[in-house]
Amino acid sequence: MRVLAIDASLRCSGVAVVEAIGGKRRALYFGIIQNASALRPSACLVAIHERLADLIREHEPDSCALEAVIYVQSHKTAIALGAARGAAILAAAERGLPIFEYAPTRIKQATVGRGGADKSQVAFMVRAMLGLTETPQSDAADALAIGLTHLRAEEAVRAGMPAGTQI
Fold first, then answer.
1. Is 139 annotated in the active site?
2. Is residue 67 annotated as a catalytic residue, yes or no?
């Protein structure tokens, strides 16, 4: 199973492609989609959509996983985050990928062992779990954690347990 995982944001989206084969998990790709502050929000959405479409063509994932929105600081932030998520969801939906979302606390629990973990703990554990030689940037580490959470959820479904929320 191969999953495209996205930690969507207008200016710096974390993206990862992770795979599980025979119980072994590995990162095929991880990085960020960085949009300059001078770029119009609408152009950021196009850039997110296009880069994700390229990654989908290149890596041919079986599904897509995103972090669910639970709490944001302001209406403006919520709107920008929603738009970035929309661009990401559209890129996956256009290619017929099933799309799942996971609460941030569930992702941290699955990765670190506690839902209140900070970003540095998530990055450290993702590096250890995947045997990476470098610690990923925090947004890329979050995407890797989302992907690992989805792989675990899929394994649980095969064992008869509930899955993530499909959107």
1. yes
2. yes
